[in-house]
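Ticket #4471: structure output looks truncated?

Reporter: J.K.
Steps to reproduce: submitted the chain below (263 residues) through the standard prediction queue, then opened the result file.
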Amino acid sequence: MRRTISLWTLVLLLLFTGFVGGGLSAAEQAPKEALRSAVVMMALRKPGTDSFIFIGSAFHVGNGLFYTAAHVVRASLPEKYREYTEWGIAGREPGAVRFFFKPVEVICVDPRWSPKRYYVAPFDAALVRVIEPNWNPPLSLPIGSTRSLRPGDKVIIWSYPDGKVLMEAKGSVLEVNHNHIWIRHERGVVLPGSSGGALLNEAGEVVGILQGVGEYEGESRILAGTIESAMKGCPLTQTLSPAGEGIETFERSGGATGHQKNA
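Returned output as attached by the reporter:
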């Protein structure tokens, strides 16, 4: 199984969609209101403006810390977006209509990660932290373990596949190891913008970070990195001083900091 699955050509789920802060109609509201502040969009804002572009997804694990995919925060932007340089998270708090944008610091990119063009690389995880000291999302996702995952177990993915609406997708586990979870895609939408989304077990605990999707024998399959691998490469105890020594430490340790290109 492992040999055949590794031959997939996987597509990285990045999205470059522009948006100016505003509201959406009631029909477009997220299906799970309570998750809106826990699962968010990774976005880049043009400094001094309300204009930002969506790149991928992220999820809150407590204390203003969000996991996402490394290829999201290392994405190579199209030329027309070169002025968008301020990283942030975007979403809507429960009951709100307008998007919020909160600047974040990228405090870790897994130093084991190396960018690949046509398929998903291992250790594809990053950690960001909200800069605003007095803002903390009201909900964080509990962290689980992949040790109990078995082939056939049901899993749920929450992400922003179109850059505007939080959506749910479902699948079943095909294979799991220390670093990856392979999933049969059964229901829901996984599209550009889903990278960095949360993979949950049936207990509602995070067990992985969405990386990519591909076709194998006419069947849609999803690849996620395990939460254990993410926490090993980017521990939740990681700190960042005002001068940014945290990022420099990871880069000096041999971590790849190249830019991921669209597949």
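Triage note (M.O.): checked the attachment and the full token line is present. Residues 1-11, 18-31, 240-263 have pLDDT under 50 and may be disordered.
Status: closed, working as intended.
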